[in-house]
């Protein structure tokens, strides 16, 4: 079987898009790994926006909530900000049409939350974790979820 390094080299030579590279080398952490997230975020901030999305599994406390769901082209979404430590918070995007959860908002400021999803970085001001629902796709193989005070929503 081809090593990851050889796989990366082969994909780079073929001009593989960065998302394919990320999915080839970045497994979903089995448990909360805020240090990995902070490292990934710092790398994006240094390199700038790419088309790479990364699997993240993070935990923290809710510090702010959008009180009303917002309709976008891909359906209804709820938003909240999660403190992941070291003075960093990140926007969590919940696809409400895809999740089995009560009516929004189902998180409150101060709640302890665990999130598994897709980290996107478009710019310093446009970044977050989405794909926090149970579904997968050809382009995103990891199901997501949000656990609030021990109650899991997917």
Brief descriptors of the model:
154 residues, alpha+beta, 8-stranded antiparallel β-sheet, 3 helices, 38% strand, globular
Report on this structure.
The protein is α+β, with helices and mostly antiparallel strands and 154 residues long. It has helices at residues 4-13, 18-25, 34-47, and strands at 54-65, 70-72, 75-85, 88-95, 112-123, 126-130, 145-148, 151-153. Strands 1, 2, 3, 4, 5, 6, 7 and 8 form an 8-stranded antiparallel β-sheet that branches. Strand 5 (112-123) and strand 6 form a beta hairpin. It is globular, with a radius of gyration of 16 Å.
Entry summary:
The protein has 154 residues and is α+β, with helices and mostly antiparallel strands. The chain contains three helices and eight strands, in the order H-H-H-E-E-E-E-E-E-E-E.
- Beta-strand residue fraction: 35-45%
Q: Low-confidence stretches at least 5 residues in length (pLDDT < 50)?
A: 1-24
User: What string gives the helices and strands in order?
Assistant: HHHEEEEEEEE
- Helix tally equals 3
User: What does the radius of gyration come to?
Assistant: 16 Å
Mean pLDDT: 87
How many runs of DSSP E, i.e. beta strands?
8
The N- and C-terminal alpha carbons lie at a distance of: 34 Å
Shape: globular
Task: Reconstruct the topology from this structure.
Layout: H1 4-13, H2 18-25, H3 34-47, E1 54-65, E2 70-72, E3 75-85, E4 88-95, E5 112-123, E6 126-130, E7 145-148, E8 151-153
Antiparallel strand pairs: 1-3, 1-5, 2-3, 3-4, 5-6, 5-7, 7-8
